Amino acid sequence: xxxxxxxxxxxxxxxxxxxxxxxxxxxxxxxxxxxxxxxxxxxxxxxxxxxxxxxxxxxxxxxxxxxxxxxxxxxxxxxxxxxxxxxxxxxxxxxxxxxxxxxxxxxxxxxxxxxxxxxxxxxxxxxxxxxxxxxxxxxxxxxxxxxxxxxxxxxxxxxxxxxxxxxxxxxxxxxxxxxxxxxxxxxxxxxxxxxxxxxxxxxxx
Length: 205
Prior knowledge:
Elements: H1 3-26, H2 33-40, H3 44-50, H4 54-78, H5 85-102, H6 104-113, H7 116-124, H8 134-145, H9 152-173, H10 179-197
Helix pairs in contact: 1-2, 4-5, 4-7, 5-6, 5-10, 6-9, 9-10
């Protein structure tokens, strides 16, 4: 990476990191752009090189954090010998939930604000800072599974919505059960979603 590109990345990362800390501490609406640039140690004009406004920053921050969480889980999967598609998805989910359990700010921010549209953009868009394209990782798992699904996008949408909703309440508030007690039910539901989406040719696999 060229030095000028590295400097740009550092400034953008500083703004994202500053915004995340301030959003968690003071809330989104009570945090101003001036607060963010002061915390990041950059000029206010620099903010507008990367973001159109505070809402644009929040949306990019959600994608940024989601990509980090899913990338961590996917890269951990690559260090295992797990080959079955179902078990690969369960491993990724379990790894994500573990990250959420260790850092409640992640589950609070990502699960509370993440919409399907934002998540899909974070999957498809090539990240500017060198992070991997998670949509390509998902497609790779599908291809390597040798299985055929009726609608892979609907399938991952249902799984994401399920994990997002259950993790938020279970991890933060232990409702309706603590996450460790909820996991067996959660994972069986995920497996059911996957099996129901299998094409007829693979339904008996």
